[in-house]
């Protein structure tokens, strides 16, 4: 799974080719699971959504198959269906799949601020990437705040051959690792491999001489990039640091002469600080709520038809991915079988298929599996399509710096909230939520603000869902909605210390949905003791001011 960046016809041809290869050579490959996940991949360049017919054209699947498989994706919030336009689009669960992987990459937290500073100073984008088969996937990206057509984001997938970040990975790989990657490229992209052979040879020379690699407009003609592999391994995976700048803003020789040394210095700084932190005491982990464990799936009965079995296989694969939680970096087949209530043989088939798709990766340090970079790539079309994220980023960064805390943008996810962006310029004592983190509705300022901003029917529906899903939480927070609505009526914001008692959180909802999504802007500051009322009011006023500025910018 990845954002291929191909025209629909080419994507369908490639999907069919891969399917034939696996079906013929690999009896353990669960085709129905791959078919269902291919529906998610089809949204790579379709921010407006896709109809049943368009999904059929892009994947090569029948309309009947798409209807059956989409039922499972809809039930888990991975897809949404707009009855007015008769189109599907990615749902908020697409954001949550990769969150455990992002949360496990501690170097992102350490690197985010210096990456952001360098991006501002150079006027470009600085990103961290990890490999997913024949692509590199961004797991962190910081970019210049000025408007630009060049807008990389978390989850973006870049080809190994044409990108600086891919070339840096290949040039720095161990011989066996590089040989395996080149063999896969030779099998799937022989013409591309031959065409880029001279550039790869130059990349190896550049890496040997300078420790970095270049791509002067080879992946995107308007972007020149340089990349440096980090001497940092997380779960056996190597990360690469990349910097891309608009070609029109670069003077001849500037990429190699000015940008490359700055990126190399940043890489060495990150490595040094990561080693120092790893040798000392790590900052305390944030106490995020555990995700609800998937219910054990129903076992297939002898009379089940193949169509039902196909949908069930997809459901089981999705439930398996949901087993991974922050802190669950490695899970083995036996653990997964126990959690899901499935036979070991079934789990082996599911994990084998998910590894082939890049959603899982085998643990190189021992047995078991880790989430793969493709779980992050799934969310890219949705993240890239949220125009409010790009618009809000500069103001969020400025406010974060001003208050010394984290400023986050979120939307509803089932009976909770999910973060789609966090701006953070503070010290390591405060570990804010990351993209894809799910927050409870009733105990957080963000959740309460969403309830206050929602229409009465929306609010009742969500509260009913909470009462059914988590009656203990509904009982524990009895009366909180009424108090939150009274606070919102008086001050225009909601506050809470219930989720993390050492954090003062304040949130403000947007007055109207943006592109049919109701957003909330939230801030959190470290405050071991409750802040004075005037400081809470000041935080609420600052958030309200930023929300109003963004609403004015969005107005037609």
Q: Topology of this protein?
A:
Elements: H1 8-25, H2 31-41, H3 52-59, H4 63-75, E1 79-82, E2 87-90, H5 93-96, H6 99-104, H7 106-122, E3 125-132, E4 135-143, E5 157-159, H8 164-172, H9 175-188, H10 190-195, H11 197-210, E6 213-216, E7 223-234, E8 237-246, H12 254-279, H13 306-322, H14 333-340, H15 344-356, E9 360-362, E10 369-371, H16 374-377, H17 380-385, H18 387-403, E11 406-413, E12 416-424, E13 438-440, H19 445-453, H20 456-469, H21 471-476, H22 480-491, E14 494-496, E15 503-509, E16 519-526, H23 533-554
Antiparallel strand pairs: 1-2, 3-4, 3-8, 4-5, 6-7, 7-8, 9-10, 11-12, 11-16, 12-13, 14-15, 15-16
Helix pairs in contact: 2-4, 2-13, 4-13, 7-12, 8-11, 13-15, 14-15, 18-23, 19-22
Domain HTH iclR-type: 30-92, 311-373
Region (Disordered): 278-307
Protein name: IclR family transcriptional regulator
